[in-house]
Design goal:
41% strand, alpha+beta, 22% helix
């Protein structure tokens, strides 16, 4: 019985291949962990729009309140500006002089303008406001928006925006870099 021992000897090519594989793995890990070094933290103004909220909730917040994403608990900076307005519902169609319904009376009453103003006030949705919030946040510039902690924020993104003790079902309306000083 002949016994053959297989002995593998390292040569220079084997060592070079192992080094190339190790350098590739280390560079991949470094790049994915630390990213590119040219990314810098910048200040951005992000505007959020909430289409419908009760007025008492809007009244409970103030400039300087902390803001965060209610879903991911990521800090979204501080509130720098807020505005709100009542939500108007579409006015019912009104008859104009010359319509078939009003053909018998083509004159416009002076009371019609007062009636129109009261109809506009009645068309405001009861107890609902449209609110716009602007926050100042430190973030990284991303291809299509901004990157905060582990989340990307782009135009139109739905955000459960927590401001102080209130929460708003809103979306990102605009993202603007703060002017450099």
């Amino acid at each position: 019985m002949l016994s053959k021992k297989i002995v593998w000897k390292f040569n220079i090519i084997d060592i070079l291949l192992i080094l190339i594989v190790l350098v590739s793995i280390v560079s991949l890990i470094y790049k994915s962990t630390f990213g590119s070094s040219d990314a810098q933290l910048q200040t951005f103004y992000v505007t959020y729009v909430c289409e419908s909220t009760p007025p008492e909730v809007v009244g409970s917040i103030k400039t300087g309140d902390g803001c965060m994403d209610g879903d991911s608990n990521i800090s979204l900076g501080v509130l720098t500006e807020s505005s709100s307005e009542p939500i108007a519902t579409p006015a019912p169609p009104t008859a104009t002089p010359g319509d078939e319904e009003n053909s018998s009376n083509d004159e416009i009453d002076e009371n019609d303008s007062a009636d129109a103003a009261s109809v506009e006030n009645e068309n405001a949705a009861p107890g609902k406001m449209r609110a716009v919030f602007t926050t100042e946040v430190e973030a990284y510039k991303y291809d299509h928006g901004i990157y905060i902690e582990d989340s990307v924020y782009v135009l139109g993104k739905h955000v459960n925006l927590v401001i102080g003790d209130a929460i708003f079902d809103s979306y990102v309306s605009s993202i603007a870099a703060a002017p450099s000083e």
